[in-house]
Amino acid sequence: MEALIQRMQNLMRCDFHLHTNHSDGSWSPQALVSHAAAIGMDVIAITDHDTVSGIAEAQEALQSQSKTVAIIPAVEINSIWNDGYGRVRDVHILGYYIDVNNAALHALFSRQRQARLEQVEEMIGKLQAGGIDVSMTLVQNLARSSPIGKIHVTRAIVEAGGAGDVSEAYSKYYDRHSPFFTQRRSVSPEEAMQAIKDAGGIASIAHPGADSIAIDLIEDLREKGLDGIEVYHRTHGADEIRTLSDLAARLGMLETGGSDCHGPFQEHQSLMGTITLPESVADRLTAFGRN
User: Fold this and answer.
1) Which of 145, 173, 201 is the last residue of a domain?
2) CB proximity list for 283: less than 8 A, separation 6 or greater
3) Fewer CB within 10 Å: C terminus or N terminus of the chain?
4) Which is more confidently placed, 3 or 74?
5) Predicted TM-score (pTM) of this structure
6) What's the CA gap between 271 and 263, in Å, rounded?
């Protein structure tokens, strides 16, 4: 950990939000590390959804690289926020410096897998009733050992002829107004944050945007243990970054940031390392890493 902290203090190239094919990315952990080394990354965080299974593979892959890349053990936990007054929102909680072997964290992952399985089974029933020949077996084969997610369902829809590509499948079948839409089941943000804290980590809300609901949400979760805000993200414009940075300062919260890179996909190139982080972001994250 001390070596990791020293590298971060030297302000090299950092990206604190990356995915592998252990969740919804297209890179294997080995390929991600190889690319990170090739483009000169120094510190990265692998933040797969609801799993830490790719981190050990990535760390092992470092042994074959001529350039050392420090890896922060991390995760992105899907959750659903309900304010009790009719406002419901998908919320992703990033956890940094976690103990990847923590029992409470893995118990939450198990709950997430079961909830996702039930959602997918319900959606497959709707798809089959609508004449799309998608099966759970096909989805599971596409997911392999990874937690089943939207990417696997949409790929299955494409293979079954229900859409021309994954982007069309997303827009056609996952839109809330689609007759095939199935409400995602998930833990609450509070449960996600607690699991991260139980694993010795710090919790930051991922890509919240800066609308009024996001501000209310962040203020609510701050009172319940949220440590940080992902201020710097590819979906945040200059105004959103300014608003979120000011909010973090007002609430005394950590700022985090990253590209949310899922690897190269179809016509899209890798986004790794494309989000420039202020020196203060790495410095404050370093301070949390010491504790």
Assistant:
1) 173
2) 8, 9
3) C
4) 74
5) 0.87
6) 7
Sheet holding 14-18, edge to edge: 14-18, 43-46, 70-82, 88-96, 202-205, 228-232, 254-257
The DSSP secondary structure of 155-224, one letter per residue, reads HHHHHTTS-SSHHHHHHHHSSTTSTT--PPP-B-HHHHHHHHHHTT-EEEE-S--SSHHHHHHHHHHHTT
Residue 254 has φ and ψ, to the nearest 5°, of -75, 145
DSSP state of 148: P
> Which tokens hold the place of 36?
């990170």
Instruction: Enumerate residues 6+ apart whose C-beta is below 8 A from 284.
Output: 254, 255
Structural domain that includes position 139? 115-173
CA angle 99, 105, 110 (to 5 degrees): 140
Residues 204 and 97 in one domain: yes
Structural domain count of the chain: 2
Backbone angles phi, psi at 187, to 5 degrees: -75, 170
Identify whether the C-beta of residue 13 lies closer than 8 Å to the C-beta of residue 41.
Answer: yes
> In the chain, which residue ranges form alpha helices assigned H by DSSP?
2-9, 29-38, 53-61, 103-129, 136-143, 150-159, 166-173, 189-198, 212-222, 238-251, 279-290
At 83, the pLDDT band (50, 70, 90 cuts) reads confident
| CA-angle at 193, arms to 192 and 196, nearest 5° | 90
3 state DSSP class of 79:
strand
Strand 70-82 relative to strand 14-18: parallel, antiparallel, unpaired?
unpaired
**End-to-end CA gap in the chain:** 11
Q: What is the pLDDT of residues 65-80, one digit of tens each?
A: 878 898 999 999 999 9
